[in-house]
Structure formats: C-alpha cells, structure tokens
Amino acid sequence: SAIPEQHLGIRLTEISFRGWDGHTVPAVIAEKDEEDSSRQRSVLSELANKQTDKLQHIDYALVCVDWDHGIRSALPLAEYLTAAGIRCVLWEPRAKDNARAFCTHGLKECRDVPLLVDALAAACGKERPLIIAVGQGYGAGLLLHATANDDRIRGIVAIDAFASLRESLSRTMPENLLSRVKLALMDLKINRTVGFECFDVAPVESASNIHRDTPALVINLQQDNPICTINDALSIFRQLPSDCKEVWALPTPQDAPGATTRTEECTVGQGDNERSYTFELHLVADENTAFTSIIYWLHDQFLTAIDKPRVTTPARPILTADSQL
Q1: How far, in Å, are 72, 76, 220 from residue 40 at the CA level?
Q2: Helix boundaries (H) for 25-111
Q3: Which end of the chain is more exposed for a tag (fewer CB within 10 A), N or C?
Q4: What is the pTM of this model?
Q5: What is the mean pLDDT of residues 270-274?
C-alpha cells in the first residue's frame, strides 16, 4: 500500500482526490501523535522557550519530496512540521496503483495541486484556507510550478530544487561532443514518450511567476550534488519577485567558524549575455538546524508578511511609438 499503516509520532488520516488526468490520487493528512519521534523531540526541545503561537493559523502544509513513494518519502520532513503543530498533507504523484508510468519531474504532476487544494478547502469548510508549500528535491520543483499557478498557496519553502532539468543533467556528463549527442537523443526519446523536453522543466522560470506577496525561502543543503547546486538555489532566489524572501545554505570549510552569513557570487548566461550577481546567504549549522529554523521562519517571517495588505503588481505599460514621451 502507498499509505503506511502507522508512523511514529504522526497520526495519518487517509483522503483522496481526482487528479488532473482523471486518476485517483491517494493522500493523507498528517498530524502530531501522542508519542514523539526523535526528530520531533529535537524540534520540541528547540521550541520549548520560543513563541510559536501564530503557527496555529496555518491550515495545511503541502509536503512533497519524491515522485516514487510520495507519501513515505515526505514523512521525515512532515515529522519536523507536525512537531510544531502544523498539519501536513502528503500525496502520491504516481497516483493510485502507480497509474502514471512516466515522471515529468513536476511539469505535469503539479497540475494535481490545485485539485488537492480544492479538496482541502471543501474538507475544512474554508473558501481560502491558509496553505503553505514545503518541498525538497523533486518536490521543491513541483511546488514551485504549482505556487506560480495557484495564488491560494500563500508561501513556499524550496529545499534543494534544481533550476533547470537540462542544466542539471548536463552537469552530470563530461563536457564533450558525445554528451551533447546523448542529451539530444534523450530529449528525442522523452518527447516521443511523454510529449515534453528537458528544456521545458525549469522551476527557475516558474519562480519568476510567483506572486510578489508570496513569501519564499530557498535552501541548499546538498552542496556536493550536481543536480541541485548552490547556483541553482541562487538562480531561483534571484528570479523570485517576492517582497519577503531568503536564501539559506550550509557552511563550507572556507567559512569562518560560527559564521552566520556568507556573500556568494552567481554568474548566469554566457558570452555577451553573462551577468554576475552578489547575494547574502544565511548559514545554518546542519540539516537538523535547517529544518527547525524553517519553523521559526514560518512563524516570524511568513505569517508576519501575509498579515500585510496584498499588493497588486502593476501591469507593464505597452510602449509604442505613439505612447512614448
């Protein structure tokens, strides 16, 4: 079964909804249970002397990590959030009985999310429940796509997201003509099978379409993974229009002991189009600290930001020869 019978520290309530392609998608609502897991105990000890009362205003956190075994893979991340009293929603991107044979790396699977939000709104009786998205790896890319297309998702945490599937795959191959041929043949096969190319899967482009009133937190933890580098995190961060946004990373050996910030330069484009940007990263000591710090960010930054009046992004003027001054 896609849904585990039990998980230490978490009480699971089964739900389901009809996905974008008509398949039934299993899902669960995960809430804190009476017995604590080790991850939950570490969070609870950190939160003992902190104010986190505003977290109760969050109705649901959509949590997605992996395409295969979507619910099981998201449970460890849900442990951290449920320890703070946040209700999490996990689902199966492959749909019931693995009905979807092919993974599109979030490009099509993200279409499930508005339908899941519809189901949650109906379940809780609120027209617009307060929903955040927390994704890691594959799930981070999927939720960047989804957040760009549904403004009912009021905030996003993207952990170890790749900026572009094509660029990530390229980094895993040697720089030679054979690699370029392999990529071209791979794109041809993918296009014939599922109707898209690697170029189409670019969460960095979706990031630029997220509403400016949607707080965003971008985190890079897998520093040695060529699929999701610090440059991917910075590229996504740069594209976000959000008025409230931060980018975090783990310290490197080059950072001073106890350093809490680091200035990082990111280069995008090539040749005449090459541009360099400088960013200030917030450093978190380790992965466990990062996941606990997400809870503080949700309480102190996200919930504070969304209390402000929503700002409408003005439309860009259409400049013609007649309208120019």
Answers
A1: 17, 10, 22
A2: 38-47, 70-83
A3: C
A4: 0.88
A5: 77
